[in-house]
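Quick note —
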Amino acid sequence: MKILLIHGLSRTPLSLLRLEWYLQQKGWATEHFGYIAFAEPFAHIVARLRVRLQGLASQGAYGIVAHSLGGLLTRAALGLGTIEWPQHIVMLGTPNQPPRLATYAWRLLPFRWWTGQCGFNLTSPAFFASLPAIESPYTIVAGTGGPRGSWSPFGDELNDGIVALSETRLSHQDRIVQLPVMHSFMMNDSNVQKTVRQALSFEV
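Predicted structure written out below.
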């Protein structure tokens, strides 16, 4: 089974190289899907991803490991039409509910310029409501290493510094894997990598 790695907002495929190396050592073939949010509208990125997924599906079974926004791109692309769904999807810190920090960040002009439509979508409940449900088996990994307290925008809620635990949830039935990591670099954590391997191993 081939694994497609999809990075998060403001990151590049380089951010997933350590995870890729780990997965390759465990026997998986891997590929990357890259994008630059300020240079390409969300819809164009999704259309490219859909073509990529169609190509992977034509070769046989495949899986997806997506960090943050990568999980939303995955959901949007798979919902566009008839594509063979992956054997398993692993979402690392993906905000499947509107993340509260996006609303604050969108007030900042640099964030608007750098993230474009992708950033705006994160502020829109209508966008999240439009995303299709996931038809494949999936695993959600949420970080809990973020700051908590009266001074934190998350209050006492568990979070990874960017996304709250509750914001990663797709369904009330989800059994979210919680690990004490931060959002931006969770894919480099050994426990996160082991969790990804275990999730994918059920489908090999």
